[in-house]
Write a structure and sequence with these properties.
It comes from Amycolatopsis alkalitolerans. This protein is an alpha+beta fold. It is built from 21 helices and 16 strands. Helices cover 54% and strands 12% of the residues. Strand 8 and strand 9 form a beta hairpin.
Length: 737
């Protein structure tokens, strides 16, 4: 007997087996496609980093060939990566990164295509004048993180380089590129929490004709077939579906990569080629997925191989033991031990998460069994008694219909803990008001930068004016030190989130008593007394993000005193923000502003929300499909039972109600448990993110109940397929079985 020929013959003559095989192949294709996409995400971030690693400044005095200063700028809410360079050797001898056509000479600028288009669309005073040079070329996509990235490579002479420029040995090489740790973590979590529902979908599809196949194989065993032959038949049937599904998943993988390229991350989209996997990894994953399905199918033959008579007579399975309940606390304890250990790797965290997810497979059937026992003992209506008896007789099969829903609820509860908590961590940004732009510079250059900025602002017709802000330290006799800034009192309310009442003459403004304090240029340096007649006045910070302890009027400083650090700040209130930014950015230093800092935070949160929504939608769709297929499979498995009940006069509506109860009852109990477990795991993962942050706590919202409610609704909706399945049973002769 050739197992492969027999399996093909069964597929040819049995329509239900063909349907099960097709659905199994589709499930394997979905799982394979998801695995290939999720595993490729870290490689995609590495490909991005390799293209843009040259944009990161590479300092080094030994063998230096150029001066370099890196910074960021913004136009609207779009970030500009700026690199100012000046060669100290022949520019032709400097190795260029791929995609950079030439080394810019003084007065020359190379820009990305997206930045060039934006420069053409805006007035020069709003963008182009920031670079103080002539555009001589564009960077191609090999030099960009993502296609629409805004990048400028600005050429200078060594004398005109921005303050803070350092010697460099050349552009940074690709071997320094690293994987994005956050997306790598999300990809690992996605593999754990999305592939399991995919495998549940595969298992549900393969169970569509489980009872019929079991009887067929048992008959072959009783007719003299060896265990190896029976195993070969099942391996051939499942192998055809699994292999076809894996190849289909590989075939649609480029389409998934193309779709994923449109999902923004880190400020922009991707190149489809970013998602390429090494050939060895691709082959391993494509072979591993059908191998797992095949192994699961072969392991499911134990009852037929060992006791074919019991399989034919459908003996009741052994009752489940309460020890199964220990799986979840043991897995949870391992997970929380891992996240509480400082030296634990991310691999161990993902292993703990996988154990928690896998424990649901062990605990879920026992919960289903317990629910069935309650209904058999307490319920007296026909539908409830039928549902309860089914849950008692086959708790594993009954739980299978809600397994995917349980995992989707777990994912949703975990996400609804993490996202609001991450949003609660947002904010901050320093002492300046939202509309203030500032650059850090040396005290020696601060006056020059402010004067040059003001000259441009006047030329552009803007009302705003730049102000020098010195940074100093106040020290008391008992050793305590405070951070203070030096700025004219009349400018404080325009620049800082601080309220104060200006006093005539020199004054120091603080949140407490500043008598006895001396002023020093920087931390740890000896202090000197304030100028004679300096008053001690009170200031009031407007919120907790203010990090400055005192404001010092310049007249209060002793003669000849020079701060060790300085900033130049300008408010955009009443002026065009982009034009003010252009006037300040022409000096080459990186510009800081609180509103852009908050925009950056919101962009990161937007990335997390987007990825979470995509993951939840995928999990919900997979869960609904697996629940619907499992419910239909349970009807097919019990065609004889339902046919006999209908022949005895049982209405289809009673049987439909019983089947819906079978899906809803275990789903209700399991989804509540999954919601609580997901919340606890989310709290654990959040504790990893907030390590080192004081006063940050998780956020609990009423939306935590939403996954449980939606999960139960998906289970009941998926169970609605039972009525068409029952009508088909009624339409077919019972003798067919």
């Amino acid at each position: 007997m050739n197992p492969v020929r027999l399996a093909i013959r069964v597929l040819r003559v049995d329509g239900r087996t063909r349907t099960s095989t097709i659905l199994t192949a589709v499930g394997v294709a979905v799982a394979t496609g998801l695995v290939l996409l999720l595993v490729s995400l870290p490689y995609a971030t590495k490909a991005r980093a390799e293209r843009s690693i040259w944009q990161v400044t590479n300092y080094g005095r030994s063998g230096s060939v150029m001066l370099v200063a890196g910074g960021t700028d913004f136009t609207g809410d779009k970030e500009i990566t700026r690199l100012d360079v000046a060669s100290t050797v022949d520019p032709g001898t400097i190795a260029l990164p791929p995609g950079v056509p030439r080394f810019p000479r003084p007065g020359e600028v190379l820009v990305s295509p997206a930045l060039f288009e934006r420069m053409q669309a805006l007035a020069p005073s709003q963008l182009a004048d920031r670079f103080q040079g002539r555009v001589v070329g564009t960077l191609d996509e090999r030099a960009l993180t993502y296609p629409d990235q805004l990048v400028a490579l600005v050429g200078h002479t060594p004398a005109t380089m921005p303050d803070g420029a350092q010697p460099s040995t050349g552009f940074r090489s690709v071997d320094r590129a690293e994987v994005d740790p956050l997306l790598a973590l999300l990809a690992g979590v996605g593999v754990v929490v999305l592939i399991v529902p995919s495998l549940v979908l595969v298992a549900s599809s393969s169970r569509l004709t489980a009872a019929r196949r079991e009887r067929r194989l048992a008959a072959l065993r009783l007719a003299g077939a060896t265990p190896g032959q029976v195993t070969g038949i099942v391996a051939a049937e499942t192998g055809v579906a699994a292999a076809a599904g894996a190849l289909l998943g590989l075939a649609v993988s480029p389409v998934l990569d193309w779709l994923a390229a449109f999902v923004p991350w880190g400020g922009g989209t991707w190149l489809p080629s970013d998602f390429g996997l090494p050939v060895g990894m691709t082959v391993f994953l494509v072979v591993a997925m059908p191998a797992l399905v095949l192994a699961a199918a072969v392991l499911g033959l134990r009852r037929v191989v060992r006791n074919p008579i019991g399989a034919v007579s459908s003996h009741a399975p052994k009752p489940l033991r309460a020890w199964r309940l220990l799986a979840l606390p043991i897995a949870g304890a391992f997970f929380f031990i891992v996240i509480s250990t400082r030296s634990s790797s991310m691999t161990m965290v993902l292993l703990g998460l996988l154990l928690v997810v896998g424990s649901a497979v062990v605990v879920g059937p026992w919960i289903t069994y317990a629910v069935g026992r309650i209904f058999v003992q307490r319920w007296r209506k026909p539908a409830g008694l039928l549902a309860g008896r089914r849950l008692l007789d086959d708790p594993r099969g009954a739980y299978r219909a809600s397994a995917g829903v349980v995992l989707a609820v777990f994912i949703g509860s975990m996400a609804l803990i993490l996202l609001p908590s991450f949003e609660g961590m947002a904010g901050g940004g320093g002492t300046f008001r939202d509309e203030v732009l500032s650059v850090s510079t040396s005290p020696q250059r601060a006056g020059e930068v402010a004067a040059r900025t003001n000259e441009r602002l006047a030329r552009y017709g803007q009302r705003a004016r730049a102000v020098e802000v010195g940074e100093v330290t106040l020290s008391s006799v008992n050793g305590s030190q405070l951070q203070a800034v030096v700025v004219p009192c009349g400018q404080v309310s325009q620049l800082f989130r601080i309220e104060l009442s200006c006093a005539p003459g020199p004054a120091v403004y603080g949140v407490g008593d500043l008598s006895g304090y001396k002023v020093s240029p920087g931390y740890g340096e000896p202090g000197v007394p304030f100028a004679a007649g300096t008053q001690d006045r009170v200031m009031r910070p407007l919120d907790s993000d203010v990090s400055v302890d005192a404001i010092i009027d310049p007249a209060a400083l002793p003669a000849g005193f020079v701060p060790s650090q300085a900033e130049v700040a300008v408010t955009t209130a009443g002026s065009d923000p982009d034009t003010v930014r252009t006037a300040l950015a022409a000096s080459g230093e990186s510009i800081y502003s609180r509103d852009i800092y908050l925009v950056h935070q919101q962009a990161q949160l937007g990335d997390l929300r987007r990825v979470t929504v995509i993951g939840l939608v995928a999990a919900a769709v997979l869960a609904g499909c697996s629940a619907a297929i499992a419910t239909a499979g349970s009807v097919m498995d019990r065609r004889r039972t339902f046919g006999a009940l209908m022949a005895a006069g049982t209405p289809v509506r009673i049987l439909s109600r019983a089947l819906r109860a079978e899906a809803a009852l275990p789903a209700l109990a399991a989804t509540i448990g999954a919601g609580v477990t997901g919340m606890l795991v989310g709290l654990g993962l959040f504790s990893l993110a907030q390590k080192g942050r004081e006063g940050v706590s998780a956020v609990l919202t009423p939306w935590l109940l939403a996954p449980v409610v939606l999960g139960l609704g998906v289970a009941v909706l998926a169970a609605s397929v039972c009525t068409p399945a029952l009508n088909r049973v009624r339409a077919e002769p019972l003798a067919d079985e």
